[in-house]
Amino acid sequence: VMKRTSTLGLLLVTVLFARPAVAADEFDALTHPVKATLIADTDAIVPGKPFHIALQFKIDKHWHTYWAHPGDAGSPTRATLEADGVTFGDIQWPIPQIIDLDGYVSFGYEDHVLHIIPAVADAGLKPGQDVTIRAVAQWQCCKHGVCIDGKADLTLTLPVRSEAKPAKQVMFAAWRARLPVERDDAAAKKFIAAIEQPTAADGSAKNELIVRWKTQPPSNVRWLPVASVAIAVEDIKVTDKDKVTQVRFSTDVFDAQGVPGGVISSLLMFDAGPGKTVGVNLPVRVLPAEAAEK
Description:
The protein is mostly beta strands and 294 residues long. The protein is built from three helices and 21 strands. A hairpin with a 5-residue loop joins strand 19 and strand 20.
């Protein structure tokens, strides 16, 4: 059986201001503010069938880890997974919290977060085997301007059976409900009438988004682009008028080929009621497709 390896969350972000750093080796597994574990939504692996694992963080009070794009500072969680006979998908990022510390805004998670990762078992696995999933997780956590880099070598062993029972259903369901949705999902269409990206006279996409709402704009509308070492997205301005939200931004492209198809991922966030935040995945064109291919 071939060994399948997946490297997840390889976004590198430049820290925009200096923070005191504390070496990770000053903390052991008991004293580190983030406790990392690897869990699954099943009690066994069934050959040829999909399942999910998750990187679970339990985070001490006042500390936080980071989303795919950390904001003004920080570094996102990364995980490299491997297992004989298992293929892994991409890490899934729950809708982040907005963390404002002394005017510096970051996007991340406090208290507890589950990063769900889809997986598929090879059809060639045989019942009676055990499969050990190995993960190397790396993260940064911060508290009041002090940041700690964390790392954990994690393992999870599951038996291979012809049938499996669900595990940790409530926890996985709660975190699936906090994942962003696509723009044609019912949760988005309940509020959004249309999303447009205007074009310039030459046909190129403007650095602008127009969100047309079915009613008045919801509160706390935010647009979070997923930046990378290939492109910086800056000067974001979000304004509301009547039933329209306008997002304007600027870009600084360092490597056009590092922006596949000239499109970046982004997240449109807004409040949909007490304690309910909706996140909508939104691909945005920042370069002509031909420019990204050169």
